[in-house]
Amino acid sequence: MFGYIKIDKNELKVRDYNLFKSYYCGVCRTLKSDYGFPAHYFLSYDVTFLAVLLSAAIDAEPSFFPVRCMANPALRRPAAEKSDTISYAAAVNVLLVWFKLKDDWLDNHSLKAAFLMPLMMRKRNKAKKRYPNLYQSIQNQLSELAALEKGNCSEPDAVAAVFGKLMAEIFNTEQIASDDMRRVFSHVGFLLGRLIYLLDAWADWEEDKKKKAYNPFLINENISLKDMQLSMDYTLAELGNTLNLLKLYRNQDIIENIIYLGLKQAVDDVFSDDKNCKKRDAKEKHHERPI
Fold first, then answer.
1. Which tens digit of pLDDT belongs to each residue from 15-59?
2. Is the CB of residue 281 less than 8 Å from the CB of residue 202?
3. The CATH number of the domain where 234 resides is what?
4. Is 66 within the bounds of a domain?
């Protein structure tokens, strides 16, 4: 479901790319220190974007310090220091991974999920204890989503809206002090969730057809490629307009790169007939550690 939120490295300044990596490393180190193995191996760009956006909306200046990493122990690179923002992003990552593993087990009895769930259970409990309301909100929205999927809901927008509400709950964090800004953040999360669900469903419909798995586009085959592209473009435009309502203290170039270029490229890749685009998208979706 995740993996569509990414940067367009070619259009990002070296300074901003290194800054994005610093947030990525900061969340990774927090996952490792707070939750241990194997939690930090599941870090996604999606959660890194959450950390970047939250940091941009908070007045307090983030701190960075040089660290070494097992991926390249000879090189010291800056990492964002642990903070409320970084800790929240790490907890979100743990909870999303847990529910993804649970979903994989319930859907197809995935052996990978069966192996990893016992390893992630204590991490799940720790994140749940820190953010009980968030855990309950995610669980409620996923239960609603499962009910729609089990009932073979034929309206893609209906199921996508539920996943949008899930993301809205994640973005509606108390770290944003202003109620007005929290509402804007919540809407950003909703739009991202809607976009991600529809993109993922459209990209997976051939595979879901083979597996006889639920997919709204298999049930409702009257939706055209043109209509879906227009819907995605509209969502991207609304997302950009919503972000303009936020007061950002920093990281604006990174955020705009992700929204206007990275997400747009993800949409284009999903709807492209070029197999190389699809392969590139799949590689970036499932192998995000090399950053």
1. 999 999 999 999 999 999 999 988 888 998 999 999 999 999 998
2. no
3. 1.10.600.10
4. yes
